[in-house]
Amino acid sequence: MDTNTILIIVGATALGLIIGFVIAKTLEKNNASKIVKSAKKEAATIIKDANHDGEAIKKDKILQAKEKFIELKSEHEKVILARDKKMAEAEKRTRDKESQISSELSKNKKLNTEVESKIKDYDYRLDYLEKKKEEVEKLHKSQVQQLEVISGLSAEDAKSQLVESLKGEAKNDAMAYVQDKMEEAKLTAQQEAKKIIINTIQRVGTEEAVDNCVSVFNIESDDIKGRIIGREGRNIRAIEAATGVEIIVDDTPEAIILSCFDSVRREIARLSLHKLVTDGRIHPARIEEVVKKTKKQIEQEIIEVGKRTVIDLGIHGLHPELIKMVGRMKYRSSYGQNLLQHSREVAKLCGIMAAELGLNPKLAKRAGLLHDIGKVPDAETDMETPHAILGMQWAEKYGEKKEVCNAIGAHHDEIEMKSLMSPIIQVCDAISGARPGARRQVLDSYIQRLKDLEDIAFGFTGVKKAYAIQAGRELRVIVESEKVSDDKAANLSFEISQKIQTDMTYPGQVKVTVIRETRAVNIAK
User: Fold this and answer.
1) How many of the other CB atoms lie within 10 Å of CB of 9?
2) Average pLDDT over residues 263-268
3) Which of 204-222 are b and which e, b meaning 16 or more Cβ less than 10 Å from the residue's Cβ?
4) Are strands 337-338 and 463-469 parallel, antiparallel or unpaired?
5) Which residues on neighbouring strands pair with residue 383, listed in sequence order?
6) φ and ψ of 250, to 5 deg
7) Partner of 282 at 20 to 30 A CA spacing, among 100, 442, 470, 507?
C-alpha cells in the first residue's frame, strides 16, 4: 500500500471521529435540555405542593392557637370567679366578726359598769367595817380595863396564869393518851408482826432441795463403762486425778456414780464425762484437755447464772464481780441447802415484807440476794473472817448502799443494825432456813471435815492438788515432781497422816495416798 492510500485512510478515520464526536455532543445537549425541563417541572410541582401544605399547616396552627386561647381564657375566668368567691366569703366572715366584736364590746361595757358599781359598794362597806372595828377595839379596851380593876390583875398576868393552867391540863391529858397508845401498841404489835410474817411466807412457795454429795451419770450401754475404766484402770485414774471426784463403777445398769462433797468438781466431772463419751476418744491426754475446757465452761456458766438470777429478781446496776459471786452460789451449800436457791428465796421474802411495811422492796431484794455472798470466798485467807462481815466488806468495795451493807453485816448480829432493812434480812434468812426439810446440820459438818482434810494437805510444801474421797476415808495428794522426790513423797505421806491424827477427830481410818508423776514435754518445730 502506498503513502497516499495510507493518508486517505487516516484522513477518513479522523473525519469519522470528528463527525461522531459532533453527533454525540448534539445528542448529549438534547438529553440535558430534556432533563432540565423535567427537573423544572418537578421543582414547580414540589413548590406548589409545599405552598399548599404550608397553607394547610398555617390554618391548622391558627385554629389550635385559637382553641388554646379560648381554653386559657376559660381557665382564667374560672380562677377569677373562684378568687371573687373567696373574697366574698372573706368579706362575709369579716362582717360577721365585726358584728360579733361590736356585740362583745357592748357586753363588756355593761360588765365594766356593773363591776365599777360593785367596787364602789365594796369600798363603802370596807369603810363601814373599819369604823366598826375601831369601835369594837375601843369597847374591848374599856372592858379589859374594867376587868383589871375588878380582878386586881393585869391582862398579861391573867394570860400567864391561864396558860400555865392549860399547860398542866394538856400535859396530863397527853401523858394519859401516850400511855393508852403504848399499851394498845404492846397488845397489837406482836399480832401484827406475826400477821406480816405469815402473809410473807404464804406468798412465797419454794421447793426444799437438799444438796447431796453424789451425782448419777447415765450411759446408753454398759460397754461404755469398760472404755471409761480403760486399760488397767488408767482412764478412770486420770479422770479422778484431773477432777478430784471419785468415780464409782458398779453393777448399777446404765449408770455411773460421781461422788464428791464439792458440787463444782462433780459438775466438771459430769460434763467432762459427757463430752468424752459423746466424742468417743477416751485416753489420759484427751481427758486432761477436756477437763481444762470444762473448767473454763463452768466459769462462763457461773457468770450466766448470776446474770439470769439478777434479771429474774429485777435487780439493776449490780457490779460484775458481785454478779459472778451470785453465780458461784449455785455450786455452794449451807447446811445442805443450795445457797443460790436460799438467797433467791430470801430476796423474794425480803421484797414482800418490805412492801408490807412500806419500805423499798427493790433495795430489800438486793440485800436479801447478797446477804450470804461471804460464803463464796475466792481465797483461803478469807475463811477466817465471818461470812457476814466478809460479805459486807465486798458490798462496800463494789459500791453498794449503806443500808444494804449494814443489812448484810448485821444479819447474824456481828455488827449493830442501823436501818429497818437489817432486821428484815435477818428474819427472812431465818424463815428460809427454818422451812421443814430445807437444811441438814450433819451434812454441813461432814463437808467441813472433808475441807479440813484437804487444807491439812495444802499446808505442806510441794503439794499441787489434794482431794478427799471415799467419804473422807481416803486423802489423795498430788505433788510436784520437781519439788518432791520419791523418798520425800513417802515421808510426806507419813507426815500428813500424823498431822491428821493429831489435829482432827474422825471415825475409822484415813488413808493418805501421795501421787508423784514425772513428765517431760518438748515441742518439735
Assistant:
1) 11
2) 82
3) beeeeeebebebebebeee
4) unpaired
5) none
6) -125, -155
7) 470
Phi, psi at 282, each rounded to 5°:
-125, 105
Distance of CA 326 to the CA centre of its chain: 16
Q: Chain-centre distance of CA 488, in angstroms?
A: 55
C-alpha 243/C-alpha 428 separation (Å) is 36
Q: What is residue 383's DSSP assignment? A: G
State the pairing for strand pair 333-334/337-338: antiparallel
Q: What distance, in Å, lies between the first and last C-alpha atoms of the chain? A: 119
Cell of 312: 429474774
Q: Is the pLDDT of residue 425 over 60?
A: yes
- Three-state DSSP class for residue 315: coil
Classify strands 333-334 and 255-259 as parallel, antiparallel or unpaired: unpaired
Q: Three-state SS across 84-147? A: HHHHHHHHHHHHHHHHHHHHHHHHHHHHHHHHHHHHHHHHHHHHHHHHHHHHHHHHHHHHHHHH
Continuous H helices in 418-507: 421-433, 441-458, 486-503
pLDDT over 50 at 380, yes or no: no
Euclidean distance between CA atoms 169 and 174, whole angstroms: 9
Dihedral-angle region of residue 468 (phi above 0 means left; psi in -120 to 50 means alpha; beta otherwise): beta
Check residue 382 and give its pLDDT: 52
Rounded-to-integer distance, Cα 329 and Cα 211, Å: 12
Q: Which amino acid is at 373?
A: I
Is residue 213 within 8 Å of 259, Cβ to Cβ?
yes
Mean predicted confidence (pLDDT) in 291-308: 88
This prediction has a pTM of 0.48
Looking at residue 414, its amino acid is E
Q: What is the rounded distance in angstroms from the CA atom of residue 64 to the CA atom of residue 77?
A: 20
The dihedral formed by the CA atoms of 398, 404, 405 and 409, expressed in degrees to the nearest 10: -140
SS3 at position 475: strand
515 forms bridges with which residues in the sheet? 478
Helix (H/G/I), strand (E/B), else coil: 222: coil
Cα-based angle 306, 309, 311 (whole degrees, multiple of 5): 110
Q: Measured between alpha carbons, how far is 28 from 22 in angstroms, rounded to an integer?
A: 10
